[in-house]
Write a structure and sequence with these properties.
The chain is α/β, with parallel strands linked by helices and 283 residues long. It is built from nine helices and ten strands. An eight-stranded parallel beta sheet has the order 8-7-6-5-4-3-10-9. It has a two-stranded antiparallel ribbon with strand order 1-2. Strand 1 and strand 2 form a beta hairpin. Helix 2 packs parallel to helix 3 and helix 8 runs parallel beside helix 9.
Amino acid sequence: MNPHITPSINAGGRLLSFDVPKVMGILNVTPDSFYSGSRVSGSKAIAERVAGMREEGADILDIGGYSSRPGAEEVSPEEEYSRLASGLEVVRSVWQEAIVSVDTFRAEVARRCVEEWGVSIVNDIGGGTLDPAMWDTVADLRVAYVLMHMRGTPKTMGTLTDYNDVSADTLTDLAFRISELRSKGVSDVIIDPGFGFAKTVEQNYRLLADLREFRITGAPVLAGISRKTMIWKPLGITPAEAANGTTALNTVALLNGADILRVHDVRNAVETVKLMELLKNDK
């Protein structure tokens, strides 16, 4: 696959082309996400957050009901779906035509969100490893799929960072999984190298430096760096103070070929994309 070809996906019957990188806004309907500023609960707060992301220029909304941070509490499928449904009901009332992604590793939860709320992208942090039914479910639903790289589970991933070459090993694993997904009939695949998931801070920076290599798969590349440990830990700050660092690294991600920025701060990311496009168009 030519890495210079602009990829695209079918998102719920709409063609999403990445000739200009897209911004995916994070909507956490959880009480324990790692960045407290991203948590919203109650219809009014969710509506305000969704309206704000729409106004700021989000291309995709990514809604999650189960925190994947290390040490997070287990949540039953019923509770996860209940949280998601409460959020999706508000999303559809505020921004009916939004392209919505659901952040879940559970096939049954993904199915209900797609069938009952018109979700068009499934964002799976497990990349099919946490629920063996996920890939067949996505194939059956005919929705787009974010294939993220992770080893183990959120509780064990911190001990599974032994790679020969983190970029090469991650790319090889994702390429194999893309092939498996294609064989099942899943054609609209987005890849996510999984910054912070079974990666040390140093390994995250190697992945970021090598991000363009992932375009060889032909799939759009998602960079989920926003306010993560790789930013705030080296700087000796907190996630709440990591907006500036996020913008800096999102700029690097765009320069290195990212097609989607998954972020807490939509306006910052939209402005970054616009400025990087000016730089690109001036060449």
